[in-house]
Structure formats: structure tokens, C-alpha cells
User: Fold this.
Amino acid sequence: MLTKSELLKIFKEYGFRPLKRFGENYLIDGNIKDKIIREACIEKSDVVLEIGPGLGALTIDLAKSGARVFAVEKDKKAFEILNDLAGGEFSNLELINKDILRSGLSDLAPGEKIKVIGNLPYYITTPIIEYLIENRTVIRSVLVVVQKEVARRLLAGPGDDDYSSLSCFVQYYTKPTYIYTVKRTSFYPTPDVDSSLIRLDILAKPSVIVKDEQVLFKIVRGAFNQKRKTLINSLSREEVLDIQKEELTNILKRAGINPASRPESLSLSEFAAIANRL
Assistant:
């Protein structure tokens, strides 16, 4: 991988400046790079999708594994540099200049399950994670570096300050695991906060039983959008369930939920109980 001095040399050679709006912070810590590669457990038979390869800090090692690697980079200039650095070196590596949210994951390797790895840009982390979960049927696992505050949201449970609708969505479809912290000094340019390496293992079936997923997540989003209100007040609103408070109170009580509860106190299974009662 490239050191900071090597990065700066390439930036100068190509007239390149990392774009803050793309959240471009390049990994320069070889120890962290090696740890991420070890955690990925890539085998020759694997199909790998790398999101945001940048200038190839992980890409070269992934390609050396012998696995079939698709590296998707949105920044056209960064893509051109990466193509110069590694484009013709490995027959098993395909570089793609595209927005990952506009990539058809099921078309990359039809019939194969994909291992996803990457250092996710902070400005688009949540949409990428949601996109990956929506395409979970073609994904084997997800190993990504995200900002530490995002990691806390993904891992949070009832009662935690960071517990949110995103926590419920991710934990409904996956098992999120915190692996370790990646210090901000491991990147150049240096970001304002530390990051975390996390793994999302796709569950064979959702973590709770619910009759209608759309109803479940309508409830979850409606509750957390008015987090400071009680459950009865946040869910009875016209734009959420549009149910009279008296009727909703009876539904909540039959589901074993106190109508005066706050959204952050409810577990995913309790949200599911409400959805099933509805």
C-alpha cells in the first residue's frame, strides 16, 4: 500500500486533490491494512466487492488472494490513478468507475454470493449499508470501516443513546459485530473522528418474527422520528398510523407495551409485537 509520502507524490504527479465532499480519506497504516485483510478471510474461490478502493490500499492484497475482485470507485480521477497503478496487473481484478448505489450487485457474479469489503465514505455510509441489506440475497458478508458514531448506531440496543431506526433495520436483517477502532491518524487526509471496523453477517432469516415488514418499519421510523414523544403520541399521528389514541392504547396494551414508553426503550421484538397486533 502507499505511504503518506507516496500518496503526496502521486497527488502531485496527477494533479489530484482528495474531495472532501466524497469523504476521501486514504488508508496509510500498513498494520491496519493487514488486520482488515486478515479479518476478511478471503479465499481463492470467493467473489469480492470492494467499495471505494481509492488508490488501492486494500485492492492489491485482495487481488493477490486469487479471488475474483470487483473494485467500484465513484471518483473518476481516483479511478484513473488506480487503473494506472493496478489495472493491468491482475486478471482477476475488475475496476469499475461507478456509483455503488447505481451498481447492479446481482449482475456482478450471477449465482455467486459476494463478500463486501470497504472503507465507506462518511457522507453516504447509511445509504450504502441500506443498499447492501436490500441486496442481501446476493451477499455473504459485509466487512466495512465506518465512522465510529455510525458504528455505535448500528450496534446500539434499547436504552442506548445511539439506538435508532437504523439500529433496528440493521439488526433485523444482520448480526452486526464491532471488531476494533481505527484511529483517525491511520488515514490521509486525517478525518475529524476515529472509525470502527465492523462486520455485518447476513441472517438466514430475520431476527424477529413479523407478519408485515412494511408495517414494522413504518412503526419504527414513526416512533424514532418523534423520539422525545411517548409512543402513543408518536404513533397516533396521521402520517404514521393515523389511529385514534384510545384504540391505539388498547392495541399497545394487548401487545404488552406501555403507551407512555419512549421509542428508545423498546426492543426490536417489542416493535414487532406492535406490528403483529396491528
Notes: The chain has two domains: 4-202, 213-277. The domain at 4-202 is CATH 3.40.50.150 (Rossmann fold). The first helix runs from residue 4 to 14. The chain has a mean pLDDT of 95.
